[in-house]
């Protein structure tokens, strides 16, 4: 018995040391002021593909006779408690409801400026009471509907210039810089104002909390570009930010306490002073660009609490910029999947590049929208190998 016990302890220690050695090769963790700083050097799982994506279905077609599947300027997607799907068809000023099998149920919304009307709708999100909130920047409000499409109420969209995140508590997170533009004193120079990463609002558009601090840059362009992030949250209202143009992913409590700061090895660097160029885009039109390296294009959580971050492998070429994101390039972006501790587990290739926009994870399915070519929603199942 003593021999078996000693053998078990020996094997356990060896396994622990082996795993520690393996972890040291793929990431390092530094703790500062109670915050874990995780620097990922390589995926923990190496080249082993333990997760894959499987196409389930497509909803909508560019050439179809069914007007309920004729989308124009798709913006967002949301799901109710019965797994019904709501698609924001902004170009047609409507929300389309489908059942969990993808069958059309009903439409609501119309062009206008009154209650229940839409002008420039951008985002959908359900609250804990099962009501659908539609961010309409054209009318500078959030319209709230029941699941059968009936108008319920509206509230101000002040502070939500680039989208909103409706938390389980009913509070709302909005981008710090762009939200601050709508609330600042116009006489104050923007470079003299220090914005948070996020403002937290109540539904009267009153700021109740500030989360994080912006990074300061000398270049004016970088105040917005360098501090913009995609946002999601978990069941405890912890907030996750993936910065578009910085090698940084962050996690905060809903009260603003920082928990995690995550970086990863890339084949390119952050840019702090963007280059301004003038290039010809589609149709022969000349346009000015600020050239800055992109790192992320969205973040969502799956049912296991893993972070899925749409991440750039390389940067767009001049020819790809002319295509205005219509280029299907399998070597442009991938999914980086992180565990709850911020450790990079794996990278999953995305064959269609950025022609489809990463919108949401729901019931372990990933949803993309193509509003540039096919005008369709694509559902992919997360498959564990």
Give a description of the structure.
The chain has helices spanning 2-26, 176-183, 220-225, 318-322; strands spanning 27-32, 35-40, 51-59, 74-79, 85-89, 94-98, 104-108, 110-111, 117-118, 121-126, 132-136, 141-145, 151-156, 164-166, 172-175, 198-201, 207-211, 229-233, 239-243, 249-252, 258-264, 275-280, 286-291, 296-301, 307-312, 333-338, 344-349, 357-362, 365-370, 376-384. The chain has 385 residues and is mainly beta. The radius of gyration is 22 Å and the shape is globular. The two termini are 38 Å apart. Mean pLDDT is 88; it is low at 15-23.
In terms of per-residue confidence, which ranges show pLDDT below 50 for 5 or more consecutive residues?
15-23
User: How would you describe the oligomerization state of the chains in this entry?
Assistant: single chain
Q: How many strand segments?
A: 30
Q: How does the helix and strand content classify structurally?
A: mainly beta
- Quick one: biggest sheet? 6 strands, mixed
Helix content: 10-25%
C-alpha Rg, in Å?
A: 22 Å
Distance between the termini: 38 Å
Sheet with most strands: strand arrangement: 1-2-21-20-19-18
- Per the principal axes of the C-alpha atoms, what is the gross shape? globular
Give the count of helical stretches. 4
Mean pLDDT across every amino acid position: 88
Strand content: 35-45%
Characteristic key phrases:
4 helices; 385 residues; 11% helix; mainly beta; 42% strand
Brief summary:
By secondary structure, the protein is mainly beta. The chain is 11% helix and 42% strand.
Give the SSE layout:
Elements: H1 2-26, E1 27-32, E2 35-40, E3 51-59, E4 74-79, E5 85-89, E6 94-98, E7 104-108, E8 110-111, E9 117-118, E10 121-126, E11 132-136, E12 141-145, E13 151-156, E14 164-166, E15 172-175, H2 176-183, E16 198-201, E17 207-211, H3 220-225, E18 229-233, E19 239-243, E20 249-252, E21 258-264, E22 275-280, E23 286-291, E24 296-301, E25 307-312, H4 318-322, E26 333-338, E27 344-349, E28 357-362, E29 365-370, E30 376-384
Parallel strand pairs: 2-21, 8-9
Antiparallel strand pairs: 1-2, 3-30, 4-5, 5-6, 6-7, 10-11, 11-12, 12-13, 14-15, 15-16, 16-17, 18-19, 19-20, 20-21, 22-23, 24-25, 25-26, 26-27, 28-29, 29-30
């Amino acid at each position: 018995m003593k021999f078996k016990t000693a053998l078990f302890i020996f094997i356990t220690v060896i396994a622990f040391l082996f795993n520690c050695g393996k972890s040291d090769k793929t990431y390092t963790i530094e703790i500062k002021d109670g915050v874990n700083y995780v620097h990922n050097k390589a995926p923990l799982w190496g080249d082993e593909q333990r997760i894959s994506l499987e196409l389930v279905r497509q909803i909508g077609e560019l050439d179809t006779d069914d007007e309920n599947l004729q989308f124009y300027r798709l913006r967002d997607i949301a799901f109710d408690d019965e797994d019904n799907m709501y698609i924001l068809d902004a170009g047609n000023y409507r929300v389309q409801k489908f059942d969990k099998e993808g069958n059309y149920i009903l439409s609501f919304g119309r062009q206008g400026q009154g209650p229940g009307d839409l002008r420039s709708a951008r985002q959908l999100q359900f609250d804990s009471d099962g009501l659908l909130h539609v961010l309409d920047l054209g009318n500078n409000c959030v319209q709230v509907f029941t699941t059968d499409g009936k108008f319920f109420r509206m509230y101000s969209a002040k502070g939500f210039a680039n989208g909103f995140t409706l938390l389980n508590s009913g509070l709302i997170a909005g981008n710090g810089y762009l939200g601050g533009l709508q609330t600042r004193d116009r006489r104050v120079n923007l470079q003299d104002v220090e914005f948070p990463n996020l403002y937290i609002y109540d539904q009267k558009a009153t700021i109740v909390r500030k989360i994080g601090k912006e990074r300061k840059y000398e270049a004016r362009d970088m105040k917005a570009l360098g501090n913009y992030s995609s946002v999601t949250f978990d069941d405890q209202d912890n907030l996750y930010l993936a910065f578009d143009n910085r090698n940084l992913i962050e996690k905060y409590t809903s009260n603003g306490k920082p928990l995690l700061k995550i970086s990863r090895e890339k084949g390119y660097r952050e840019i702090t002073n963007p280059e301004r160029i003038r290039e010809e885009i589609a149709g022969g039109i000349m346009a000015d660009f600020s050239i800055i390296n992109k790192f992320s294009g969205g973040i969502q959580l799956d049912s296991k609490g893993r972070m899925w971050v749409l991440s750039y492998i390389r940067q767009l070429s001049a020819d790809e910029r002319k295509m205005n994101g219509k280029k299907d390039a399998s070597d442009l972006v991938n999914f980086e999947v992180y565990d709850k501790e911020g450790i990079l587990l794996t990278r999953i290739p995305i064959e269609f590049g950025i022609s489809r926009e990463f919108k949401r994870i729901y019931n372990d399915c990933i949803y993309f929208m193509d509003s540039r070519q096919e005008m369709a929603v694509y559902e992919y199942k997360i498959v564990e190998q």
